[in-house]
Structure formats: structure tokens, C-alpha cells
Design brief:
By secondary structure, this protein is α/β, with parallel strands linked by helices. Helix content is about 50%, strand content about 10%. The chain has a single domain, classed as TIM Barrel (Alpha-Beta Barrel), CATH 3.20.20. The longest helix is centred in the middle third of the chain and has 25 residues. The radius of gyration is 19 Å and the shape is globular. Bound molecules: coproporphyrinogen III.
Amino acid sequence: MTQRKTLLRALAGETLPVPPIWMMRQAGRYLPEYRATRAKAGDFLSLCYNPELAAEVTLQPIRRYGFDAAILFADILLLPQALGADLWFVTGEGPRLSTITTQADFDKLGRGEMIHDTLSPVYETVRILRRELPEETTLIGFAGAPWTVATYMIAGRGTPDQGPAHALKAENRALFQAIIDRLTEATVDYLSAQIEAGAECVKLFDSWAGSLRGQDFTDFAETPARTIIAALKARHPGIPVIAFPREAGERYVGFARATGADCVALDNSVSPEWAAEHVQVDGCVQGNLASSHMVTGGQALVDETRRIVKAFSGGPHIFNLGHGITPDADPENVQIMIDTVRGG
Ligand code: CP3
């Protein structure tokens, strides 16, 4: 059957006259309708675990803007919670988790097969979305990559430099590796369940990959991604995978080959011209407009959007931001970006 969904065509390696477009955090606080639904749910985690409301916020940016893809509304930290970590969000500050720094902490964690009890509402959200999304819209499932999720589990919160995770890696390599391995295994189970529920593509978010250097990048960014992607493709032949090793810099080069990813998502610290030459040669790329343009708008937004479309026009490309849209973004600027991508 000929594939009609533009996002899946780009992921299959097709160069399209107009790139498909979606946005990281497209369901989020910059939208008044998101804030209203979140208030109805009570708090962020209650929203994640309420399939009707999570599906509703996923659909909001599709209705408003007609993006080519919808991303499941959930969070990368639901997986550690399903493995037994405590998780809560402090308003205005971010996530908090019970920390894992000793073997005894690790021994309390469950294994992959127990996650589905906690995560079944997420799979229900996926099922609702597959019924309700327009037929041309692709549904993306996702998980955090093991290293990024481990940085939150070890520190118990977000950190500017992932210091606690680097310290554990240096001081107790065996325990650190055990955490990575447990997350790798559980991520395969989690993403498989999303695919079985109807996700048509999955994305691995390695937001802190940029703080891994040299052999550490190979061992803790590339190797877990390769293991996860190989296992998913063995269970679900043909499932496309987008990998986002954020701020990988020169390590973006060859990342698709090293991991088997169908698409590499780029942050905006690399220029689109450089990435077209060195990364897009291996296949589809996604990105990479700075999300600050969604706040500042104006001619610079239009110029930079055109520059990115042009730089990547010689190969498969999915237009996106370089990171998530921020709460202070102007919803009008999102429309200007879309019109520029689609209308030139
Ligand atoms: O992109 C989407 O629209 C899909 C949903 C999604 C969320 N988080 C919703 C969310 C996705 C894909 C994520 C991924 C995620 N979560 C990452 C990786 C991507 C990245 O941004 O680097 C990370 C590191 C997290 C962990 C996380 N969740 C943090 C650090 C925070 C607090 C920071 C913040 O923006 O408030 C969250 C909360 C979160 N996840 C929000 C949303 C919409 C804001 C929560 C709210 O409504 O108050």
C-alpha cells in the first residue's frame, strides 16, 4: 500500500517538496486550551494518567494548527515511576524523584514486565488518539533514552550538568551500568506497548546526551539506543524510530548508522547547512529552529525558517524546533512558522 502520511514518507527516506512539520511540546502551556484542560485535571501527572484529557491536549495543537504529527501526551519520567520510583512535580521548579545512589535503592526497583500496571492509561490514550486523529496525521509515541532518564533517577531532579549521574558512573560503574541496562530493557517493553496500542513511530529523547564525551557517548548514548531500536524492530518490523541525542555536536555524524535510527533529530546548536552535509547524508533529519523564535517572532523567524527548509531541501526532512516550545511563546508565531514552511 502506498504510504500517504507525509511524516512516515519522510521517515522512509523520501524527499518531499514540503517537509512535514510538528513541534516538541506542541501540547503545552503556551496554549490557553492546554492550561484550561490541565486545570481541569488538577495537576500535570493527573493529566498524564487521564486518557480522555491526555488525548484532548494531544489533539488541541492538531485542531489549532493542523500539524502533520501528534505526539502522545505523557512524560519521560512516568517510566521510572512505573519501575517503583516516587515521582512528583513542584510547580515552577520541575520534577522530583526518590534518588537511586546505592545497590539497595536499585534493588527496590521493579523490572520491565511490571510497568504496564502503572502505564496502562498511557496505552489507552494512544488507542483513543488512533481513533480520533485525522487520517493524515501520524501518531508518535516516545520514551526518554536510558542516560537521560538515569540522570533524573540518580539526582532525584533535573541538574544543570548531570553531576550526580557522572559521579555515580565514575564511583560505581557496575551499579550505574545496571541502571542503564534496567532502563534499556524497560524502555523496549514500554515502547512496544505503545506501538501495540497504535503508535506509528516512536521517538527516543536523550536530552542530556551532550554531556557524554568520547567512549561514554558510545557506551551510554549510542549503545542503549542501538539495543532498543534493534529490539523494537525485531518485535515490530518496519516501525520507524526518531532518535534525539540533544547537543551531540559532532557526534551527530554517524549516529543513525551507529544506532539504526531512521531519523536523527537535531537541536539548534548545529547549523542546518553543516547538518545537511554531515548528518542528512545518512537519511532523514528533524529540526532545527531555535524555540526562542516562537517568543520573538518577526522577520528573523521567517528568515530562519526559510533557511532551514532550504538547507535540508535536498533530502528527507521533518521540520521541528531544536527543543521544546516554551510557555512564553506566542501562539501566533507558531502559525507564522507553519505558513512559512508550507507556503515558502
Ligand atoms: O512534546 C510533547 O508535547 C509531548 C509531551 C512531552 C512532555 N514531556 C510533556 C510535559 C514530552 C515528549 C516530554 C519529554 C520530556 N520530559 C523530556 C525530554 C524532552 C526535553 O524537553 O528535553 C524531559 C527532560 C522531561 C522531564 C520533564 N517534564 C521536565 C524537566 C519537566 C519540567 C520542565 C517544564 O517544562 O515544566 C517536565 C514537565 C512537562 N512535561 C510539561 C509538559 C507539557 C510541563 C508541565 C506542566 O504542564 O506544568
